[in-house]
Amino acid sequence: QVQLVESGGGLVQPGGSLRLSCAASGRIFSINAMGWYRQAPGKQRELVATITKSGSTNYADSVKGRFTISRDDAKNTVYLQMNSLKPEDTAVYYCNAGIRMTFLRQESDYWGQGTQVTVSS
């Protein structure tokens, strides 16, 4: 089995920073793309940022210049550094990864349980 566990969420004032982490564990042969998504109350889940195995990144327009995604393949971990946070960044943040459990298995999509980020004064 594979698990993704997020950490680092919390309450922060506007203009503040948070760093989210997501660690994959279990039976892992390889991890392809990893990413962060978020879902605000009453809204659909939306992409925040993704990073490929080679390190190419993609960001939602709303977070460009403020958020940075990175990964540490030795730790099977993806990070999201969030700076200059705004109230509209308030949401549950989910990590996602494409993981192959064995050489013979196809890649499957895995999700974390989510971590709450609240930006408020």
Outline the structure in words.
Strand 7 and strand 8 (77-82) form a beta hairpin. This protein has strands at residues 2-7, 10-12, 18-26, 30-39, 46-51, 57-59, 67-72, 77-82, 91-100, 108-111, 115-119. The chain is an all-beta fold and 121 residues long. The chain has no helices and eleven strands.
In short:
By secondary structure, this protein is mostly beta strands.
Task: Please name the defining characteristics of this protein.
121 residues; four-stranded antiparallel beta sheet; 0% helix
Supply the number of helical segments. Answer: 0
The helix/strand order is EEEEEEEEEEE
Structural class determined from secondary elements: mainly beta
How many individual β-strands?
A: 11
Please compute the radius of gyration using only Cα atoms: 14 Å
- Proportion in β-strands: over 45%
Biggest β-sheet strands, sense, barrel: 7 strands, mixed
Distance between the termini: 40 Å
- Global geometry: elongated
Poorly predicted sequence stretches spanning 5 or more consecutive residues: none
- Helix % is under 10%
Average pLDDT: 96
